[in-house]
Amino acid sequence: MREYKGRGPRRKKPGRVAMGLWSIAGVMGGGLLFAAPAQAAAPTDCPPTYACLWGDTAFKTGGATASVIKLKQYIPALRPFSYYGTSRTGHDSASSVFNNGSTDTAYFFKNENHGGAWFKKSTNDGDSDFTNGSPPGSFNDSLDSVYFATLFVPIGG
């Protein structure tokens, strides 16, 4: 039999094992503990710097997300605008909106020329279903104009 001339089996220090376990736990679960709050994801057919309207809920018009009205400026009346690929106008027909702008809050009004009740959406914010009472005030199928904060801010806005 061979004679052993070493110091004995190498032992890990207790702190190393604990640190290793904490490191693994941090990598695996840390993302859940330290994740930043998720922002609303912009619908794919609403490009950056635009506010968009859809005629139905869930950011769709007639079942298609591409059937959208894209706005990048003040719109005193939605009547002349149609959802892309359709003959359906924006006048009193929107059921979901998204503001994918980079700096401006978008204001949505029930009447033309910024008249009547209104609600606002900050950048990277939207509402996928007006029929659920959000925004308040029965805005489903009743929008008629859209303004941006740099062009117009309503009283109380």
TrEMBL record:
Q: Where is the signal peptide?
A: 1-40
Can you tell which superkingdom this protein's organism belongs to?
Answer: Bacteria
The major lineage groups are:
Bacteria, Bacillati, Actinomycetota, Actinomycetes, Micrococcales
Keyword field: Signal
Q: Which organism is it from?
A: Microbacterium protaetiae
Pfam families documented for this protein:
Inhibitor_I36
Query: In its UniProt entry, what is this protein called?
Result: Peptidase inhibitor family I36 protein
